[in-house]
Amino acid sequence: MSVSHDIEVPSSENVVLRGGCRCGNITYTSTALPSAMSHCHCLACRQTSGSPYQTFASIPTDSLTWTTHTSRGLSIGESVGAAGLLRGLWEPGEVCIVAGSIDEGSVKGELMKPTEHIFLEEKAGWFDLPEDGLERFERFSNEESDKRITAWMKEHGGDESKKRES
Questions:
Q1: Rounded CA separation 106/19 (Å)
Q2: What is the domain range of residue 37?
Q3: Cα 90 vs. chain centroid, distance in angstroms?
Q4: Does residue 59 form part of some domain?
Q5: How far apart are alpha carbons 148 and 1 in whole angstroms?
Q6: Is residue 139 part of a domain?
Q7: What pLDDT shows up at residue 26?
Q8: Which pTM value belongs to this model?
Q9: Of 8-12, 20-24, 38-42, 46-50, where does the model show the most confidence?
């Protein structure tokens, strides 16, 4: 694997997890474990994952280092296989990564478990969500994040749930 000279990779002793996409074109390290994990049931996550929901891990932006060079500024809506990665669109200072992209064998410490289901208003009708004791939210789990994502969705083509009704 070739690493671009302009990427400063943290010392391996500080890295607490590694991950990336299946093909290896996008890889990352983190010096912090996730601060939150959520199951997202929105249409965009279902479409990119091919599953009834996708699980995300929130990591402080300043702890994440891309270890392969890419000219693509990854964001919601871009397809990078199942390992699409999201920048902190709704939580300043955080980046959300697809939890399935984490190499669990590299984790130093214990990964937290998901604590919530979000965007249940867009949940697949064919999927019966079992009672798992996690918090459930029709949209986001907090009002400020909900405002940010709603504004982002309007700016980038409208509310996904309204698109699918057309």
A1: 8
A2: 17-160
A3: 11
A4: yes
A5: 37
A6: yes
A7: 82
A8: 0.73
A9: 38-42
The residue whose two tokens read 């074109």 is: 25
**CATH code for the domain in which residue 137 is found:** 3.90.1590.10
* Position 122, amino acid: E
Our measurement of the distance from residue 84's CA atom to the centroid of its chain's CA atoms, rounded to an integer in Å, reads 7
Please say whether the beta carbons of 38 and 116 come within 8 A: yes
- Within a domain: residue 9? no
Q: What is the DSSP letter of 122?
A: G
In a domain, 6, yes or no: no
Q: How many domains does the chain have?
A: 1
Planar angle of CA 165, 87, 68, nearest 5 degrees = 125
Identify the helix (H) or strand (E) that includes residue 147.
Answer: helix 143-155
How many residues are recorded in the chain?
166
134 pLDDT above the threshold of 90:
yes
Distance between CA atoms of 33 and 35, rounded to whole angstroms? Answer: 6
- Average pLDDT for the chain: 77
Are the C-beta atoms of residues 107 and 16 closer than 8 Å to each other?
yes
